[in-house]
Structure formats: C-alpha cells, structure tokens
Amino acid sequence: MPQMCHYKNVKNMEKRNKVAQTVDMEAQFVHLARLALAGRANDVELLSKRILNRLSDSRPDLSNEIRNVLKESAEASEIARTKAGSSPLPVDFDSRLELLKRENAPSVGVHPVWSPEVRNELETLLTERERSDELSLAGLSPSRSVLLVGPPGLGKTLAARWLAQQLHRPLLTLDLSSVMSSFLGKTGSNIRVVLDFARRQPSVLLLDEFDAIAKRRDDTAEVGELKRLVTVLIQAIDEWPADGLLVAATNHPELLDPAIWRRFDRVIEFPFPTKDEIEELLNDLLGESVTSAMIASISSILVGKSHADITREVLRAKRHAVLTGEEMSALITNLSVKKERGTLKDRLVLAKELRSKGHSEREISQRTGLSRQTLAKYRVQE
After folding, report:
1. How many whole angstroms separate alpha carbon 22 and alpha carbon 36?
2. Is there a contact between 83 and 193 (Cβ–Cβ < 8 Å)?
3. Longest CA span, the chain
C-alpha cells in the first residue's frame, strides 16, 4: 500500500511538472511574440535559442533537429556578421556610450514620396555607383559626399536610409548625445574616432543635425573647440574614400560654415511637397478608406505641411477611427491644419462628400469652416 501511494505521488508530480512546463512554454511564446512584433530581432534570436535548448531537454526525440537548427543559426549569424562588418562600435572613453548607431540592414518600410528633382538626384547617386567602372576610365569617381538641406520632416533622414538600403550597405548614424562632451577637446576626439571608424568599412555615414558640429567659424558665441571641428570635417570630407558615402543633413543651412558647402560633391535641397506629391502620400497612407475626390481636396488644405506632419496627422486620425468606429472620410477633414489654406471649391467638395455619408449640415459646417448659409447657397446650385 505505501508503495502504491508513492507511485501515485510520483505520477502526480510528473503530471504537475508537465503542466508547469506547458504553461511556461506558452508564456515564453507570448514573450517571443511580443519581442518579434516590436522588431527586436536580436532579442528574438536569443530567446529562441533559450527555448530550443530547454525544449531539447524535455523532448529528446527532437534533440537532433534542434541541434541542427542551432548550428545553422550560428553559421548564418557568422556570415551576417562578416558581411555587415561586426567591429565593435567606437565609444566615448569616459561615459562608455557608443558614438554611432548601426543598422546592418536598413529598411525604409514605406514608399518614399519626394519631388522629381530630389528623386533624380538620389537615383543619380546610385547610377554613379553602378557605373563606377566607366567613371574610373575617365579618371573620375562616384560622388563620395552629399549634403541634404531643408526644413524638418521632409525626408532627409529617410533619404539616407533609402540610399543605404539600395546600396546594400550598413547605415552608421552619428549619435550627437554621446559625441558632444563638456570636457575640453573630447568632442573633437570623438568626432575623429567616428570618422576613422566609418572610413575603414564600406558604409553610409549619416551626420544628422550637421549644423551642430559644422557651425560658422565667425560665430563669436561658439568656443574654440567647435570651430576647430570644422577644419577636421573639411579634411574628412575631402579625403572620404570612394567606396563609402558620407551624408550630412541640416535643418539650418544658414548656420553652416561657408567652407563646408564647397567640400560636398552634391547638395540636395528638399522642398515642401506639392499638391500632387501630397496626394501620392495620402493615397499610400489611406488606401481606399476615402475617395479620390476627398484626397484631392485634402491635399490642397495640406499644402505647406511637411511629409512628417501629414503622416502624423493621418495616422492619428486612423487610430481614432479604429478606436471609435467613426468613418475615415469624416475624421480626415478634421485634421489639425489651417483650413483657410483650402479654396472654396475644395471645401465644397468636402462638404458634398460628408453629406453623402449622412452628416448633418451643422457637422459639415464645423468640419469645413463654411457657414450653413454658404453651404445652403451652393447646395442649391449643385
């Protein structure tokens, strides 16, 4: 009898352990899904290996297959590190913070909308790389440096990432918060380390907010160290290797030292999007959730806004539509923009669209900024 009780206790314990392992595996799977959906590839890889190792202990019948998967993963990781250049990123000597951010496989994730002039300039950079042999025979090299100029939100950083993606190169981005130091001489030293590191490997180096480190040397408000940085940058741009690409971006071109401008092989100015370009962007963002007539009308209202501002406003409206169940056609007219930029014709088109969706004249008046008398007058003329 005691032996029978012991046997039952062992069986019950094994059963509880199996249930606990199942629950634990399910929790691990939820955590794995959370990491994957957040785009944390490195964490996904580490957790997957941990789960497989634990599974190998509980499922001996799968141990050979799991061993092969882990082996293939290790080999693939080694190949990826070799291709991408897995050298440790340079760090600040005192804070030990990395001075660069590295994207081994940069991806824009969206369809970039630029003016024809900007797109032509960017595609020319790629063409020069593709036909570098022809340029070499003529004693020339592809453009090695490009300066992107324009107000915030017009796609300058996106352009750098797109170039890196098209060239199949890692994107290295200067981390200003780590580079700038309060210690005399440290900022210049950090910049030199970053430039030397990027020069040693085929990559796209992005110096965002370039005006922070390349200010005019006649600016009396700046200390001597930042003025000396300009000389370092000029020399680096002049000597940048042909197999690399240095991209600088600034929202404040008036702050740049005049000598810097002459060093870049190419300068690309990013203008605010035109009405047609805004329509293209809205079509990408909204798809078939609103009519083409409404997109045409809204694009007029949004003229003067940046790509980033438009995207932010539209995504905010889409989130609101999902949470409230309200129609996008109604919400899209309520963007936080200056409605006076839209013409009377554009607002009347919006009014007609809202009316077809069953909205009251009061709601239409609030959304379009037109008085109810004006709406009634033009409705008679329809």
Report:
1. 21
2. no
3. 98
289: Cα separation from own chain's centroid: 25
How far apart, in whole angstroms, are the C-alpha atoms of residue 345 and residue 31?
Answer: 52
Tokens of 281: 């962007």
Q: How far apart are CA 180 and CA 161, in angstroms?
A: 23
Q: Is 248 within 8 Å of 148 (Cβ atoms)?
A: yes
Closest CA to 304 of 335, 328, 331: 335
Ordered strands of the 171-174 beta sheet: 100-103, 171-174, 204-207, 245-250, 145-149, 266-269
In this structure, what token pair is assigned to residue 5? 């009780």
Residues 190-217: b if buried by 16+ CB within 10 A, e if exposed:
bbebbbebbbebebbbbbbebbbbbbbb
| pLDDT value of position 348 | 77
Tokens at residue 340, please? 């006076």
Cα 92 from Cα 75, distance rounded (Å): 32
Which tens digit of pLDDT belongs to each residue from 244-294?
899 999 998 888 888 889 899 999 999 999 999 999 998 888 877 777 877
Beta strand pairing call for 171-174 and 100-103: antiparallel
- Provide the residue type at 127 as one letter: T
Hey, what long-range contacts does 131-134 have (CB within 8 A, 24 or more apart)?
A: 132/242
Please identify every stretch of the chain with a pLDDT value under 50, giving residue numbers as ranges. Answer: 7, 10, 19-20, 23, 80-81, 84, 221, 336-341
